[in-house]
Amino acid sequence: MRSVVLLLLGAHLAYAGTHTYQYFYTAASGLPNFPKFVAVGMVNGEQINYYDSSTMEAVVKADWVKGIVNPTEWKNIWLGSQQTYIEGVKIVMNRYNHSDVGVHTWQEMYGCELNDDGTTQGYGQYGYDGADFVSLDKNTLTWTAANPQAVITKHKWEANRAIAEQYKVYLENECIEWLKKYVGYGKDTLERKVSPQVSLLQKDPSSPVTCHATGFYPSGVTITWQKNGQDHDEDVDLGELLPNEDGSFQRMSTLNVGPDEWKNNRFSCVVGHQDKTIRKTEDDIITNFDSVPIAIIVGAVAAVVLVIVIGVVGYLVYQRKKGFKPVSASDDGSNSSART
C-alpha cells in the first residue's frame, strides 16, 4: 500500500435524511510512489469504486455494488480522462509559477444529493494544492473563481457554455437516477444503524485525553465533553469524520487539560448517535496503548489507509457548506481540465 498522507480528510459525507453520490478525482505531481491520477466514487460516504493510473484498473469497493455496473465501463471512462487531469495540474502549476519541485495536486469533486422530501442538489468544484479554485453555479451556468489564478479558467469555461450545461444536465438527471439506483440496491447496507464503540485514550498521565468513537453508521455523531456535569467546550479539539474500510465511520475529540485539572474535576465524554448516548469518564481511560482493543487499532489504520488511497487533498477544500469565496473576474486564458 502506498504510504503518502496528503491532507486530513474533511469530506462532506452522509447525513440523516440525505443520500449522496460523489466522485473525487485527484491528479498529483511530485509524488514518485503515488499514482498520477486517482478516481474514487462514494455513495452516502461509503466508497464504491476506485481507479488509479498505475494499475489502470477499476475496482469495486462495496459488495452491494457488484452486479449493478460493469467495472469495465468505469475503467473506459477514466482511461479516457486521466491524461486531461494530469495535464491540468501542470497548467495550474504554471499559473502559480510553481516549479516541478515539490508536491502539487489538482482535484475535482462533483456529485448530487437526494433528500427524503424529494428535493435534490448538485455541485461541481475544483481545487489546487488544498485550496478552492473554481466552483460551478449550475443555476446561472457560471463559474466562481476563488483566486486571481482561477479567473483565467472562469473566463475560458464561461466562453464555452456547453461545459456548464453538460454539468447541469448530468447533475440534475443522470446523477440523481444513479443515486436512486444505488440506494435501492444498497438499502440494507446504506440504511443500517450501528452504534459506535467509544474509548478514552491517553498516552500517559500528563498527556491529553482523546475520546474515540468508531464503527458507527450512519455518519451523524456528536462528541462533547462535560466538566462536573456541565457542558465544557474549552481546550477541545474535534477531529474530522473519517471512513473505516468496512463503510462505517470514526471520529475523535481531544481534551487538552493538565493532570491537576483532571484530578480536581470530574470530566466525561458524551457521544450521541441516533437515539443512543454513550458516556465515558476518567475511570474508563486506557493509558497503556498495548491494551487498546484491536478493533480500535484496525479501524484507525483502515481509515488512514483509505485517506491515502483516495488521494485526499481536496476533501478539505470541498466542504461546500462553508461557502466559496469569489474574486473579481478580469483576466483571460484557458484550461484543459473538465468533468468526465
UniProtKB/TrEMBL annotation:
UniProt cross-references to Gene3D superfamilies, sorted A to Z: Immunoglobulins, MHC class I-like antigen recognition-like
UniProt GO cellular component terms: external side of plasma membrane; extracellular space
One GO BP annotation of this record: immune response
Transmembrane regions: 294-318
Keywords: Glycoprotein, Membrane, Signal, Transmembrane, Transmembrane helix
Source superkingdom: Eukaryota
Signal peptide: 1-16
Residue stretches making up the Ig-like domain: 196-287
Keyword Transport included in the entry's annotation: no
PANTHER family: MHC CLASS I ANTIGEN TRANSCRIPT VARIANT 1-RELATED (PTHR16675:SF237), MHC CLASS I-RELATED (PTHR16675)
Family: Belongs to the MHC class I family.
Protein name: MHC class I antigen
Organism: Ctenopharyngodon idella
Organism phylogeny: Eukaryota, Metazoa, Chordata, Craniata, Vertebrata
